[in-house]
Amino acid sequence: MRRTVIATSLLLLTFFVSANESPLRGGVDGSYTVKKGDTLWKVAEYFLRSPWRWQELWMSNPHIRNPHLIFPGDIISLVYIDGQPKLTVSRRGDVGRTFKLSPKIRTTPIEKAIPAISISLINKFLRTDRVFLLEEELSRAPYIFAFPNDRIAGSTGDLAYSKGLDVTRGRYEIVRPGQEIREPFTKELLGVMGYKVAEADIKKMERGVGVLKITGAQMAVKKGDRVMDKDTFTPVTTFFPKSPYTSVDGKVLAVVSGGKKAGKYDTVIISLGERDKMRPGDVLSIYESKVVEDTATREKHRIPSRELGMVMIYRPFEKVSYGIVMSAMEDVQIGDFLTNP
Question: pLDDT band at 136, cuts 50/70/90?
């Protein structure tokens, strides 16, 4: 109950402040030419005090192709419609145009559109590490139990023997079970980390034993590593930064790279997921959660919360999400509060 009151108070305070101040930066030019290497967050920061308000001001230009996408060379202009500020692509650069090459038409691949955030910062977590909803998904999965010549580990090009494979799908991922993720107050199991170790091709099945050839090993494959179907998640990086559609109250649960503190551009795991209607691009404010001891009385007190920065969701799972810290005035720590910006 106390957590809900705190989060609600922070949300109301933020609402009243946001409603009374202009979303635009002071002295901003009326247009910006998008450059290669830009991200949507960077472009939004150019125009807006709060980049997460981009969607509120964005206006698709119906006269250009793929009006919801932004490409290098595009000119983003600040215009006023009925007295209200709006941002739009006023002119499409060469990268985003459609060219007619008789007798075919070639269009710019969507992949050339600028992403919401730099892909290099999140690519590892988009395509490798993932969160499994239940511990049983890993504990009951097929596993590596031996290597040829009594070896204790394997790497790219080596063979490995597995048990539990029912069918030969061809290609698998080898995943190592990691830490459990639990809600700090209720202790509800929110998920189990799974770290991608390698990929593997099935060579043959004989008397219940699968012979796998290891490919693309990122670390040594060991006995007990799980053999899983390939992750079917398709990364989407052209989302718009925005506030969640519903009021939320969450916490920072873990720092994916290890440790208890995170800085700008670090990936954290938060206690909100698809069941909480989290979507890629959702931005949350981070507030300090700190308890200090009064040395005179030995009593512990939670000090008033301070806003530390912002985190943007880029991969939601069922009960948790990966988010990247987009701004941080101080270190973000496990246990810090999250709420709508």
Answer: confident
